Each structure stands twice: as C-alpha cells, then as structure tokens.
Amino acid sequence: MQKMAELLGLGDECGEGTPEAPALAGSCLADNRLNLDVYPDGCRWFLQLFERRGGEVVQVEFLRLSSNDHLLGTTLGILPHLKHLKSLVLKGGHARDEFGSCQHGSLTSLPPDIGNLRCLTHLDLSFNSLSTLPSCILHLPSLCVLLVSHNNLVALPKNFGSLSKLTFFSAMKNQLKDLPQSIGDLAVLQNLDLSENALEFLPEEVGNLHNCTELELSGNRLSSIPDSLANLKSLRQLHLHSNLLVTVPASLASLPNLSRLDLQNNCLRAVPPEIQTSPFVHLRGNPLGETEPSPQADESSAGELRRLFLASGEDSFTVTSEGCKVVLACGIRFYFPPGAASDPLQIYFRTLAPDPQWVKLRHHDVLLSRVLELQPHGVKFQQKVQIWMPYASPQTLHQREVVVRTFSGQNWSDLSTRVKQKRKSKKHMAHCSVLHFSWFLVVSRLVQNECKVPTEGTLLFSSVDPNIKVTFPPGVTEETRNVKLQVLPISAEEIEEITADAGCRASPLLCLSQDSLVDFLRPVRIQLPLPPGVTGLNLDQSRLHLLHGDLEGKTWDDITSQVVLEFTHLYAVFEVTHFSWYWLWYTTKTYIGGIAKKVYERLRMYQVNFIALQRKKDPEQVLLQCVPKHKVDPVLKRLQDRYQGPEPSDMVEMFEGEQFFAAFERGISIDMDRPDCVDGRLSFIFYSHLKNMKEIYVTSPVDRKGQAVKGQVSFYRGAVPDSIPEDASRRRKGPDSLWLATLPIKLPRLKPRWGENRGRPNGFSFPPLNLGNAETGYLTQTNLLSIARRVGADWQTIGLNLGLTYQQIERIGYNNREDLDKQILDMLFSWAQQNSEDPDCVSKLITAMKESGRQDIADEVETIIELGQQKYRESIRRVGLEQESSTEDSAIAMM
Q: What pLDDT, in 10s, does the model give residues 842-875?
C-alpha cells in the first residue's frame, strides 16, 4: 500500500503527520457505505483508507465524495476497482464563493473504466463542470438513476436511449437546446426533469415514454409541444411553466392520471376549453383573451382603428363600437378592440396623487405610479380593454416583479401583468387587460409563486431561490387550497450593518399564505437554505434559531424548541401546519426575537435626505424634495444649473407611504389656500420611486426693501401608517420625535417692483380677461398677474412656446428694454388678447410652461383651474341642475 501511495504521489500528504485522519475516515466506513463529501479533505481520506484498508474499501457499495476536492482527479483513477459499487455521488456545491453562491465542482469527465461498474444503479454528478456527458455512462448496464443537474451540458448523446433501465433522469439547470430522438427508447423512465435549460422543441419520440409519471420542462424556450404527449397515459404531473408556449394540444386534458398541468407564465392567448376548465390546470401569467398581443402589434395595426392623441388638460374621449386607440399626454395608452362597446360611450379619466389612507400597500410593496381613475365604473365591456401604464423604473429593486393593481370599491387586487421597455423612449410600461373600469396603479412586489394544493398533495418552490421548497403530502387537505409563497433575500452585509455584529447570519425571509383559515390536516414540510457561510461541516446547532413572525411582522417568536429541525449539508428542514413568516438565524445572541424585529423594521425603511433649493433667476421660487440617499447626487447635479441652496439635510429614515410636512419659518410664508396646505404646512407623502417634490412661491411679511430675510424650512413627520410596527410608532410619538430636519432659506433684499401692494408699473394698463370657460375654469386678470410675478428672464422662451413669433418677442423686448417686468407683462397679456376666444388656451399655457421648464407655474395654473372647476360644480349642484351619482359619492369619500 505504501507503493500505491508513492505511485499516487501522496507521500506525507497521505496523512503520515495526521494519524487522526485515517481513524476518522475509518469511522465513516460502515455497512459498506463511505460518506466523505461533508469533509473538506474527503478525497485525501479516501486515498488513505484505500492504502491501509484496501480490502474493505473495494467492497464499498455506496460512496459519496465532493468534486470540490483538489485530489478528485487522483481519486477517480481508483473508482473502477470498486466492483461492488451501487451508488456513486460526485457532487459539487459543497463550497461557496465570497458571495455565498455554490461553487461547481471541477469534474469535467470520467475515466472510461467507470463503464465497467456493472452493479452501479445510482450516479449523481450534479453541480459540476460537465459540457458533454461522459461516454462511459452509456455502458453502465444497471444504471437506474442519473443526476447531472447544474452542469454545462449543451446536448445529450444520440444513443442516450441505450440506458434501458433508467427510471429517473435529472438534467435541470444546464444548457440543453434539443433532445435526441432515442430518448423515446427509455421505456421504464418514470421521472424526467429537464427544467431551466434552453430547449426550443421536443421530439415526437417523447410520447413513447409510457411509464413516465412526472415530466418537468419548466423554464425553457418551448413555443409548442408535440401532440404525442397525449400518449403518456401514466403521467401525473406535467410542468411547462415559464416557457414561450402559444398553444397546447387539447388532448392533454384526456390524460387519465394527470393531477397537475402547470402552464403558468407562457404566451397562451387561447386555451382549449377542455383544458381551461380542468381543475388541475394552472394558467396564471398568460395573456388569455387578449386580442392585441403587444405594443408592437398595436403599432402594426395602426391603420385599422381610429387613433386619438389627447392633449394636456383634456379629461375625456368617446369610444364607439368600431374601437379605437388612445394615447394620453402623460403616456398612458388604451386599446379598445372593435365591439368592446356596443354603443358610443364617453370615457372620463384622471390621475391622482396616491393617498395612503386609501392606497394600502402590502409589506415590502413599492409604489411606481400615480393612481389612474377611469370612468364610468359600473360598465362592463364586451371585450377586454388593454391598458398600458408608464411607471418609474425600479432599478434598485432586484428579484421583484411589477404588477398593475386595481381597486374594486372594497379592496385592491393584482392583475395579470406584462412589462416592457419601449426602445426609443426607454420608458417602462406595465400592460393589463380589464372588462371593468376602476382605479389602477403600478407597484413592485416580492416575486409571488403560487399553486393549488389538492388532496393528493403537491410541491411548491421559489423562483427567486429554488433551494426553498414546500412539500404538501397526500391528505394534507380535504378541499383544494390556493397557496402563495414569497421570498425576501437578505445579504450578510445588510444583517451586519443593522445588527453591528459580524457573527449574525440569516437565511432569506420566507412568507407563506393560503386562502383558508383552517390549518393543514398533515404537517407541511419546508426546506430553507442554511444562512450564508454556514454548512453541515461547521454547524453549531445551539446557535441556530427558527423564528416565526405574524403576517404584520410585529412579533418574532423563537420556535426552535417547538419543531424538529433536520439538517443536510446545505439545508434545514422542518414541518408546520399553519402558514406565516419564517426566518432562520445563526447567532450567539440570546434574545434573537428582538434583534429580528429590529432588522425586519429596518428592511422596510428608506434612508433619505431633504433638499431645499431656490431658483437662481427668482429666489422666491423654492424647490423642496425628499430624495432617497442613493439618488441625492444625481438629483443635485441635474438641478445645479438652475437652482442654488444649502447642502442636503442629514440622513433620516422613512417608510414607504409615510406622510411628512414642510413648514416655512422665521419670516417666510406661503399661500394658505393651496389644496396641499394643512394648518400652514405643506403636506407630502413619501414614495421611494415617485418624485416627492414641490416647487412653490414664497413671500415674506417683512419689508425686504431694506434688508434680506433669513428664514428656514423645517420638515416634520406626519401620521404614521397603520402597517408600521408598533415599536416604530411608539418611538415617533411626542413633539420631539416629529421634527426631521431644518434647512435655511434666504430671500434677498429687493428693489420695489410692480405688483407689490397691488401696484402697477407706470404706463401699463391691464385689460379685463377671462381665459377658458365656466365649466373648465377661468384664468382671470389677477391670476395672470400672479403668474407674471413668477416669470423671470426666461420670458422669451415661454413666449415662443406660447406661439408668439420671433418678431413679436423682439418688439416686446425693444419697447420695454429698460424694464424686465414690463417685458413679462407685455408678453403674457399680448398672448392672452390673441387667444381669449380659444377654449383650449389654458391647456396651451400649461403645456408651454412645462416645455419651458417651469413645472412650478404649470402646477399653479392647474391648481387654479381645479379650484375653479370645483366651485363651478358646487354652484351647479346648489341650484339643483345636476344630481350627484352614487358612484361619485363613493369615489369622493374614498379619496
């Protein structure tokens, strides 16, 4: 045996200096089994055993080794001597890289003599670096189970069907593009897993697998499947989710033993009735019933339907039975197919700022759009209407999904949604189909996997982390239930930053929910990955804690002693009968529930800064914004040419949907009649991916002719949302905890200007004006004077965008060359006189201000118009000319 060691080049490395190693390895040699994959130097120990106890080693029937071992190549040369070997496991994945991901093993091939192991029935080569299947495998006459998942295989051998005794084959997570026709020769194959490959089609010969009971083809690129699958009479589960299927054979519904057909997240637009009505079919995530598949299809059929492009300020359009396409100024698009409306129908729309008292976000939801209201609410269309909503790109939100959410009048629900980025504008669009109009918004949520649990049981796994699995045994329920699974990944860096403890580790956060209030009849088995850096090799079970949280995340209880925890090298497994949040922690801390509560609370908070900037050309224009910390520098860079002001505030923490206020103090005031002004303070709602920005006009009661005014703006917390953890709410009560930050505002000393104390510049008279109409709201002479005060040296740009000619602009500038105020007034009132009879002149004024970069003035005009419209409606109602509908009452009450 010493000669063997020398031949193998081991020398002292064989363990001469570590006498305990052979003893420890020898203790693993029992009942003809040798499990060395959990040891870092398992191959070295195997070689030592073969040198010293070779007679026993060659009798081994079950052998497990790690392919992450650097001595694997030497070990492979000995394996053909183990003639009695029945099960051989050469898996990688036992080591993790710096990011916590499993490292694939170094195995790229097998010695040809492995094919002489005539007793071998089980071979596991998962998590390796195989690009082709070793040819020696095809010469294993007794092979029944073959696992080559998580490799780099691009094809299977043409004669793969020669493995005549194969009953289980898994090649998931490879790069297979097609299958050999000989796969149909696997006559006794029962389980075939080819998920997460690159398969584009299946050979007809797959239909010859008459004993196959479970066929897993999810996560490929299949656009169709062969009709021959209807020949698989033994098939119980067929998984085809996350492919590109546009159709499926109706004959699948006739399979006598089929208990689950998963067609979720495909491109199915029409499904045979036999399949669609089957209780075991899952179709979520398909654009069923959509007559317009995509924005591209919308453009390609542009000549067939009437197209409407609505300008800013318009709030309605008419749909006829011929259908139409509609594009709003804000980028929202509609497609009404022919026949959607049987009679001409007036559609009303508006976008609303989200109110947290009405828009209830779920845990870890992020709002990506304003609220779109479409009326009439009670009408049902004959065909589904397509809606495209632009939304803020969630670039910092990984492993999440975007959905359109709609309000039914009582609660919010998520619609089947597809997302796309437009090539030219780079805008992100969320697409949905509806039969009723209501309120709509776009949110980003944790990825949601769901399934129906029948009496026979089933398996649910996370698409975010496939290592998280939930197994429902037979008899787990009497009636079919719908179960949802969500996962929140948490990095080790986040845990360390929040806890200030490098020894703390946590698994991904798992949320399980169901549509039944009754507990399961049998325990449900849950598999969670061990926290990063923790494996079966270094696991100290006294430091491992399983936490259970309520659905509001307010309490976290340590249930480690209440369940039976089983461990493998990479996973922890336990059983429960009811669903909630589950979290696996690894720490030396004792009061782990309190730590988890703190971490969970912080995971829902955003670190933000406040900015207060003044327009360089007009310091009375103040821009206020609450900006997430990582966006502060880009925002300031974008504004620096037009604005100036103090450095951003210190960092504070806020929740999604939290209210806060801005109060101007020490000699600075604002218009108290603003709709968003509450007790003299501006009201804001913080949404991390929306613009929490307002530009307002400030004044000062102090006489500024003699001196400047040094004031400030302070930010205060408002009402705490209901869903915030109790501890966070308690800490925020009291006057001291409401203040967030204060920033200085300075109004410079000014020379007397026109319009102060209602004065007018000499030689300038203001004609009476009423721009617009009574129904849409008027702009009066006083309103125009207020607008003129906010315009500065950019008056020429505004005038050109209003439609004045270059000659008019030059003449106005020359006639009033000594007085900027007169230039502004002359420009505005000249435009107003020319357009006083135009009913759309107010909309044109708003558009011109936006095009000139004066969103602040555009917002003021829109506010004036909204107030005018409200007063008009109230006056109509007072004289009894209009009845308030119950729909409007409910809408106003909710808003």
A: 888 888 888 888 888 888 888 877 777 666 666 6
> Cα angle at 790 between 784 and 792, to 5 degrees?
115
**Which pLDDT value is given to residue 30?**
58
Q: Is 372 helix (H, G, I), strand (E, B) or coil?
A: strand
**Where are the extended beta strands (E) located within 100-213?**
122-124, 145-147, 168-170, 191-193
What is the CATH architecture assignment of 307-446? Sandwich (2.60)
The reply to whether domains 307-446 and 465-603 share a CATH topology is yes
Reading the block at residue 152, the tokens are 């780099």
Of the residues 162, 393, 513, 580, only one is catalytic, namely 580
605-725+737-747 — its CATH code? 2.60.40.2660
Mean pLDDT of 595-606: 82
Q: Give strand ranges (E) for 267-328.
A: 281-282, 306-309, 316-319, 324-327
- Convert the pLDDT of each residue in 355-366 to its tens digit: 877 888 888 889
Three-class secondary structure of residue 612 per DSSP: strand
- Nearest alpha carbon to residue 391 among 372, 364, 374: 372
pTM: 0.56
DSSP state of 206: G
Catalytic residue status for 122? no
Q: For residue 676, how many other CB atoms are within 10 A of its CB?
A: 15
| Topology given in CATH for the domain delimited by 781-877 | Death Domain, Fas (1.10.533)
Q: Is there a contact between 355 and 412 (Cβ–Cβ < 8 Å)?
A: no
Query: Residue 735 — very low, low, confident or very high, per pLDDT cuts 50/70/90?
Result: very low
Distance CA 750, CA 747 (A): 9
465-603: CATH topology is Chondroitinase Ac; Chain A, domain 3 (2.60.220)
Strands (E), 56-151: 62-66, 87-91, 122-124, 145-147
CA-to-CA distance for 282 and 260, rounded, in angstroms?
A: 8
- Is 94 a residue of the active site? no
Question: How many angstroms separate the Cα of 603 from the Cα of each of 594, 649, 730?
Answer: 14, 22, 18
CA 495 from chain centre, in angstroms, equals 21
Per-residue confidence (pLDDT) for residue 613, from 0 to 100: 93
436 is annotated as an active-site residue: yes
Residue 513 annotated as catalytic: no
Cis amide bond preceding 376, omega within 30:
yes
Give the C-alpha separation, 701 to 744, whole Å.
17
Among residues 122, 436, 513, 516, the one annotated as catalytic is 436
Cα(647)–Cα(672) distance, integer angstroms: 27
Q: Tell the residue number behind the tokens 């030396």, with chain if given.
A: 588
pLDDT digits (tens, 9 = 90+) for 561-600: 888 888 888 889 999 888 888 989 888 877 777 888 888 8
68-95 pLDDT, tens per residue? 888 888 888 889 988 889 999 998 877 6
CA 47 to chain centre: 50
Strand partners, 266: none
With a cut of 70, say whether residue 292 has pLDDT above it.
no
Q: Alpha helices of 230-276 — where are they, by DSSP H?
A: 273-276
pLDDT band for position 304 (cuts 50, 70, 90): low
* Residue among 578, 630, 729, 886 flagged as catalytic: 578
Domain 186-289 has CATH 3.80.10.10: yes
